[in-house]
Amino acid sequence: MDAVIMAGGQGLRLGMGEKPCVELLGKPLISYVIDSLERSSHIERIFVAVSPSTPATEELVRKKYGDHIQAVNTAGDNYVGDMVYAVESSGIDRPVMIIMSDLPLVTPELLDSIIDAYEACGEASMSVFIPLSLCSEVGIRPDTVFNWAGKLIVPAGINILDGKQINEEQDYHNYMLEDPEVALNINTAEDLKHCEAILKKR
Fold first, then answer.
1. Which residues are CB-contacts of 74 (< 8 A; sequence separation ≥ 6)?
2. Which residues lie below 8 Å from residue 164, measured CB to CB, with a gap of 6+?
3. Distances (CA, A) of 114 to 11, 34, 75, 79, 110
4. Alpha-carbon span 2 to 45, nearest angstrom
5. pLDDT along the chain (202 residues), means of 10
6. Would strands 151-162 and 146-148 be described as parallel, antiparallel, or unpaired?
7. Does the first or last residue of the chain, that is N or C, have fewer Cβ atoms within 10 Å of its Cβ?
8. CA distances, 190 to each of 21, 55, 132, 141, 197 (Å)
9. What CA–CA distance (Å, rounded) separates 168 from 90?
């Protein structure tokens, strides 16, 4: 399976420059995601979708990872459009993991378990969610909440899609995780401090 890291957003709420380059315990946020993807037993190629808003991120990827990881220049106009362009221009014609660049708590084991769940679900695509009720356990204040089968759920910022059908509506499976830390992305300085505390305990 391939992976596309979405790293073209402006990150205005954090207010610390390009969010993927913001350091957490001396390591750029995007490197946490890249390193976990590289150590996943199921991920082969890794692409990073950048935009005119994230030139430093593109430079970081080029300098730190060289030819091993390819940066894909998108327009940066909207998330879905940039994602579709990144998948198409990379020639991905099989299942692909789409993951946000600001999820420093993901682990290789977690990513492998998500991919295993996707392969078992029998659908073309899968979205990862956690129950809203778990968010308070790690101090998450989610921006987006969905009502699914009478339950309030929060997207974790990880999806798997069929690259062959990237321009088509795909049958999907909602995968519920009971680990709230996976949904802790970095939007504020408070989120950064919270992730730092969790990582120091690991």
1. 8, 49, 50, 51, 81, 82, 85, 86
2. 93, 94
3. 26, 16, 29, 22, 6
4. 5
5. 92 76 95 96 96 94 91 91 94 96 94 96 94 77 81 91 91 88 80 87 82
6. antiparallel
7. C
8. 17, 25, 19, 11, 11
9. 17
Q: Are 83 and 89 in contact (CB under 8 A)?
A: no
What does the alpha-carbon distance between residue 97 and residue 38 come to, in Å, rounded to a whole number?
Answer: 13
Contact 102, 80 (CB under 8 A): no
HSE, side-chain direction, 13 A CA sphere, residue 161: 23
pLDDT at position 133: 83
DSSP string, the chain: -EEEEE-----TTT-SSSGGG-EETTEEHHHHHHHHHHH-SS---EEEEE-TT-HHHHHHHHHHHGGGSEEEE---S-HHHHHHHHHHHTT--SEEEEEES--TT--HHHHHHHHHHHHHH-SSEEEEEEEHHHHGGGT---S--EEETTEEEEEEEEEEEEGGGTTS---EEEEE-S-GGGG----SHHHHHHHHHHHHH-
Is the separation of the CB atoms in 117 and 175 below 8 Å?
yes
pLDDT at 174: 92
